[in-house]
Design a protein that fits this description.
Chain lengths: 459, 475
């Protein structure tokens, strides 16, 4: 019996994915959970394991092609089985009805499974059993596509939710033009008609002429200045991730009024604690880094300065209930920001472990899809490579980002004496639309104080 | 602010103008309304909606009394029951006086000045009023002038109403006695409503419609049902038929009519009611002189009701947005509200004219909203339809009103409710649920899962939605 393999829903807001590479080719035998292909979406890259054991009998989507989630990309049959046109088509229809709805309620459950992206692939056994016609006609009416875990619900209509469900669209991505920002039929149809690159939530920057964008669906790069190409230049296409990064950076610049504050921080005390406790932590499999301390202090300060842990939604300020900490991780050809959810629930051990875990898995392309979504504040670490300080771009729709500069011994003046201390610069990039200089500086002063007077008993 | 200076000056106190005035005043604006009639309320209150529906209530009362035997009423001879027109008019006129007086009260409450006279636009945001006593008064609006002058019945070329025997609806509401025979040109809302009224009052009624079916704006199934019930009630329908000439003489009106197959025919009736539509009222307004762009006599406006001249907006029956515009009281009122809010600085979204309820108070009533089945198919929807007849409904049987049905037109793909067409008892009330359904972009599923109280006429809407999904419960 043939089992369809579908493009998984890699996160609530993701409508499509690109096949980067087929790890298996037609005719290869695959085990259940063995990596089958590699995908790239605008949020995450991942290896997708096979839902069943068998033989790969058909590849429907070639490398480099982008398809909507739940589209059938391959078929796996019993050994020696041939791909069957009819069967594949029937299964293609069946799959969306059985795959988890792209709702905020259902998705986190899927994501909290065993940590592999397998969970987001529709259950193959469910997909093969033909659903009764009635099941597709009358769907449960209480399933809203808009989830409530985001602190607010996007207003929409039953019809919009129906269309969203069918197309696997997260309604919160759509700007509503109806009463009180309600997403209307016109809004969602316009969204679906728009090239994928144009599907940015236009939550801000209204009144500003949006820049021209390419029309092609996968041409997601923002406009660039005309360039010239010399004789020996190498021309290479941008990866999906590169294009998405480019797009997100431009959108963020256009959206937020970026302003920066730089503070110099004395890490001597933290360094003492770190040295004293490092081996204890290593025995528990955790590396105690400066980032752990900075993250812990930042999270504690975010709890006190809730406007830094907020978003702008139209004319409203959304104060986030949770503190979900994004950690920027440099990859070979790009950058990804996995999120440590509810970071304020964790002590420094848990925080260190979580940060190391998501960073490792980010580099190994093993991130769970929702681990790159829902961040409320981000820490980035340009100091890793020696930068004194960086001026990072805000990760939308957040309103602030903390940049950690190189930590090194410097000559400092202490009580009119010259001493050597372990020093570093911290930069806060913040959105002046919401956060004023005084507020940002109070937050940063708090962070500085927290690091310089870190309570050793917490570690 | 100077004596004659207002934030907003409204020309016309019909359902568009007076509602715009009240809404503007509620939002803190100083408002004057120019109205030349002796009462406020315009066509709706004085010649249209209110008096006709009042007559329909009398017709209904008569119908019940005449079928008194069936209802078990004794103490009188049902066969001898007749309508007393002077008494009918007295009750109707008293009610109208009450309602127009009510608007005057609302004006006082909201500190709106009623300037009694005829308005002429004089350029900019100024309006010159020729007062009833002959004097002139110039009003200026600091924010906006609203033109809401409405419409009046209009005939077709070759048919000249003398307003005695060849009449418009304006006269039909005042007829001192019931004509023995009446022909009605046009089977739109006005035509079929008067057909029902006069039939009930005892006239011999003939409806002459140029197009191939009655109520040509409605869903075809509704037209067929109305024609069927009209026939049973003894109302003659001549569809696909044109009145080629009408001459009023001593004995009545001599008509020449020709059907589409060119067969001509003569007939004589006591009264010919011309119900072929309504045209814009802009006489003496000076609309063209101040540079308003006009289209076949209508004032051209955009979706925010702005005319081609800055500071002058227009709403209601007098406007066009580049095609036929609904000439309905409730449309003009909503336009008035939206416009007043826009003038007060609110952000307003344009009205969705696909969601306008259309109510026709013939017997049986018609209420509809959204696309007809044919329109939905024309727009490329994969259509599914659910129909439920009133004769299968307990409440309709109690009322003895079992003609008609509820028909839901839906999109198969997304289950969207595209249109609802009701002909039958309380259809004009039942349509409200459907209007909300369209407004909120409901799917049929929502209607299926909405609990409809029992026993009510509204159950027919729930049943029709079940039918659209496969099968009604009680069929």
């Amino acid at each position: 019996m043939a089992t369809p393999v579908v493009m998984p829903q890699m996160g609530e807001s993701i409508a499509e994915g690109t096949i980067v590479r087929w790890i298996k080719k037609v005719g290869d035998a695959v085990d259940r959970d063995e990596p089958l292909f590699e995908i790239s979406t605008d949020k995450v890259d991942a290896e997708i394991p096979s839902p069943v054991a068998g033989t790969l009998i058909d590849i429907a989507v070639k490398e480099g092609e982008t398809v909507a989630v739940n589209s059938v990309v391959a078929t796996i049959g019993a050994a020696g089985e041939k791909a069957n046109e009819q069967g594949a088509a029937a299964l293609a229809e069946a799959a969306p009805a059985n795959s988890p709805p792209p709702s905020g309620k259902a998705q986190p459950q899927a994501a909290q499974g065993d940590g592999t992206p397998t969970k987001t692939v529709s259950d193959p056994s469910a997909a093969t059993s033909a659903p009764a016609p009635a099941a597709t006609e009358v769907k449960d009416d209480d399933q809203d596509t808009a989830g409530s875990d985001d602190g607010r619900r996007q207003k929409s209509s039953p019809l919009v939710r129906r269309i969203a469900k069918e197309h696997g669209v997260d309604i919160r991505q759509i700007t509503g033009t109806g009463i009180s920002g309600r997403v209307t039929k016109q809004d969602i149809l316009g969204y679906l008609d728009a090239p994928a690159a144009d599907r940015e939530p236009s939550r801000a920057g209204s009144g500003e002429a949006s820049p021209q964008r390419p029309d092609s669906r996968d041409g997601g790069t923002p406009p660039s200045a005309p360039t010239w190409s010399g004789g020996g230049d190498e021309v290479a296409p941008m990866s999906v991730m590169r294009k998405k990064i480019a797009e997100h950076m431009i959108v963020s610049r256009r959206t937020s009024a970026h302003v920066y504050s730089v503070f110099e921080v004395n890490y001597s005390k933290v360094d003492d604690i770190r040295k004293a406790r490092r081996s204890d932590y290593e025995q528990r499999g955790v590396k105690l880094t400066f980032t752990s301390f900075i993250a812990k202090v930042a999270v504690d300060c975010l709890r006190r300065h809730k406007i830094i842990n907020a978003s702008i939604d139209g004319d409203n300020v959304v104060y986030r209930r949770e503190i979900n900490l994004g950690i920027a991780v440099a990859l070979e050809n790009g950058l990804i920001v996995p999120v440590v959810k509810r970071a304020d629930d964790l002590n420094i051990l848990g925080l260190s472990r979580s940060i190391a875990d998501v960073a490792d898995r980010a580099r190994a392309k093993k991130l769970n899809p929702d681990e790159v979504h829902g961040g409320t504040f981000t820490i980035t670490n340009p100091g890793n490579f020696g930068a004194q300080f960086g001026l990072p771009i805000i990760n939308q729709p957040q309103v602030a980002i903390l940049g950690v500069g190189a930590i090194e011994k410097r000559v400092v003046v202490i009580d009119d004496m010259i001493g050597i201390r372990l020093m570093g610069y911290l930069t806060l990039g913040y959105d002046h639309r919401l956060v004023d200089g005084a507020v940002a500086d109070q937050f940063m002063a708090d962070v500085k104080k927290g690091i310089e007077t870190f309570d050793a008993s917490q570690v | 602010m100077l004596a004659n200076e207002y934030d907003v000056v409204v020309v016309g106190a019909g359902t568009g103008g007076y509602v715009a005035a009240i809404r503007a005043a509620q939002l803190g604006l100083k408002v004057a309304v120019v109205e030349k009639q002796k009462a406020l309320g315009g066509t709706c209150l004085i010649w249209g909606c209110i008096p006709t529906k009042a007559l329909l209530e009398h017709a209904h009362a008569l119908k019940v009394a005449q079928s008194g035997k069936e209802w078990g009423l004794t103490g009188f001879d049902p066969a001898a029951v007749r309508i007393d027109m002077p008494a009918v008019h007295a009750r109707k006129d008293k009610m109208i006086t009450g309602l127009t007086g009510g608007i005057e009260m609302l004006f006082k409450k909201n500190k709106i000045d009623w300037i009694k006279g005829s308005a002429r636009l004089t350029g900019g945001k100024a309006v010159e009023v020729t007062l009833h006593d002959g004097g002139k008064q110039v009003l200026t609006a600091t924010k906006e002038v609203i033109v809401a002058t409405g419409s009046a019945p209009r005939s077709v070329p070759g048919i000249e109403p003398d307003r005695k025997k060849i009449i418009f609806s304006d006269e039909a509401i005042h007829l001192g006695e019931v004509p023995k025979t009446i022909a009605i040109m046009g089977s739109g809302a006005v035509g079929v409503e008067f057909a029902s009224i006069f039939k009930s009052f005892g006239s011999e009624v003939t409806v002459i419609e140029l197009l191939p079916r009655l109520v040509p704006g409605e869903d075809e199934a509704v037209s067929a049902e109305l024609e069927k019930t009209f026939k049973r009630k003894g109302i003659k329908s001549l569809t696909g038929t044109k009145v080629t000439s009408a001459k009023a003489g001593a004995k009545g009106v001599d008509l020449e009519i020709a059907s589409t197959d060119q067969k001509t025919q003569k007939m004589t009736v006591d009264v010919l009611l011309v119900a072929t539509g309504r045209g814009p009222v802009t006489d003496g307004l000076g609309a063209e002189a101040v540079g308003l762009t006009m289209d076949r006599g209508y004032i051209v406006v955009d979706q925010q009701f702005r005319t081609s001249v800055a500071g002058i907006s227009a709403i209601g029956d007098v406007i066009t947005m580049g095609g036929p515009h609904y000439q309905l009281a409730h449309v003009s009122s909503m336009e008035g509200v939206v416009l007043a809010e826009r003038i007060a600085g609110h952000t307003v979204t344009p009205i969705n004219y696909d969601h306008v309820p259309r109510c026709t108070y013939c017997d049986p009533e018609i209420g509809s909203v959204g696309f007809t089945e044919a329109q939905a198919r024309e727009k490329g929807y994969d259509v599914r339809v659910g129909v439920f007849p009133f004769k299968a409904l307990a409440r309709a049987r109690m009322a003895g009103e079992t003609d008609g049905f509820v028909k839901i037109v839906a999109d198969k793909k997304y289950d969207e409710v595209l249109g609802v067409h009701i002909i039958g008892p309380r259809a004009t009330e039942l349509i409200a649920e459907a209007v909300l359904a369209l407004r909120l972009e409901c799917t049929v599923e929502e209607l299926v899962k909405t609990i409809h109280a029992h026993p009510t006429m509204s159950e027919a809407v729930g049943e029709a939605s079940h039918a659209a999904h496969g099968a009604a419960i009680h069929m």
